[in-house]
Specification:
146 residues, mainly alpha, globular
Length: 146
């Protein structure tokens, strides 16, 4: 299955009120991604991808900034180029979910029902990471960076 040239075409940025709305949505999504990097129940990847979508259609400058981000840039470039994430990123994501959820359940003074919500949310997150998000194979990512 080959992608047509129109699939990879860069859309024209929006103007006017729609542009401002998309920039605001991108900033909100990016904020949620940063919160998700430390909160156990908020995923990071979907929010970064949404921020990239909104910035890509509203502000080429913000989109380039996000793609060059030391925190999210490599993840986004992998997603844009290969529609997946690398195995080490998956391993790190699963480990972080386990550590953060485990620490909340073990040390936070929470009701038992809330601890179960955290455990179930973590389990769902791990299943999504492992079984829904595609893994980039090693031979797929061999490229020359200049």
């Amino acid at each position: 299955m080959s992608a047509s040239s129109s699939d990879n075409a860069i859309p024209q940025p929006l103007t006017g009120a729609w542009r401002l709305l998309y920039v605001a949505a991108g900033i909100l999504c990016l904020g949620l991604a940063y919160i998700g990097s430390v909160a156990p129940v908020i995923p990071v990847t979907p929010w970064v991808l949404l921020a990239s979508y909104f910035f890509g259609r509203s502000s080429p400058r913000l989109h380039r900034w996000l793609l060059r981000s030391p925190i999210f840039g490599k993840l986004l470039r992998d997603w844009h180029e290969h529609r997946g994430i690398r195995r080490p990123v998956k391993v790190l994501a699963v480990c972080l979910v386990v550590v953060v959820c485990g620490a909340n359940v073990a040390f936070a003074p929470l009701d038992d029902w809330l601890k179960w919500v955290i455990v179930c949310g973590g389990a769902v997150g791990i299943c999504v990471i492992l079984f829904v998000v595609p893994t980039i194979r090693g031979e797929t990512v061999q490229r020359t960076d200049s």
